[in-house]
Description:
The protein is 60% helix and 0% strand. It is mainly alpha-helical.
Amino acid sequence: MGKSQGAGLTPREEQVLKVAKEIVVKFIEVGRLSPASFPETFQMVIDTVRRSLEPQE
Length: 57
């Protein structure tokens, strides 16, 4: 096989990816996301999850 997908990621970044994946899977399950829009939507979800973890001032 090869390197695992999580190689080199921080634990926090692994959690961000897991949360984003779960959100996108739910979008797919309820028919709100099509495969054609997956890359753009997945990136938006990851960015939103990351921003939500930033300290608030």
